[in-house]
């Protein structure tokens, strides 16, 4: 499980000289994770390279320190740790991959634990380490349960579903394209139903993609990294939920709907079939269509052009 250990930036660069190249530490600080500004991890290091990032930093929670470009460094508030380099984003991604390689730093490994009452199909694949499957769970044929996955009591994973797969996040830099190394996991509550051929993506920089108790996810759904699915929420077939989406308790996402990165769907909200949602949805509201307008407004518009 996650250890919540921290390390100072000065320790990192003293251990790996290449990570200190073109890096000036102005105010040293301790941090546990690297993350992007919209991430929800506590005690994290982020990059800032523009005025827009400065505005996001004002509202960001859990940030301990910043690596910034020389152009914006003077505008970083004094309560943040600070270092300066020419390419902050590439540097924090290098530091992220360095942290992953420190044994037992972010995560304490353990042999996988499967309750004796759980029913695991013989063709299912469960990682040998860092998985917990509680009592009464059912893991279907050809399902894959990757490391750093915790599954609560009486939950079921359908045939061909993959839990804890890698996020589509590419490593920046001039070399050949490759996936960024990732350190997060998936946390599934009690009485969760996930049907067949669905992908549940692990969190990228640490922490969990979370599915709370009694949520229900249909076939062929893609739930991306760092999402948080509230209790008794429903996500229907072929929906695509992009990274860092928060789905409120009792919400509903219809078939073939798409929810863009970082969106919050309020409690008991509804995204109707095929809707493309690009901004937050208020609780107890219903949105429809491309760019997800309020449902009645969309219906009235359709009536007006018929």
TrEMBL record:
Signal peptide: none annotated. It comes from the Bacteria. Pfam families: Hexapep. PANTHER family: ACETYLTRANSFERASE. Belongs to the transferase hexapeptide repeat family. This is UDP-3-O-(3-hydroxymyristoyl)glucosamine N-acyltransferase.
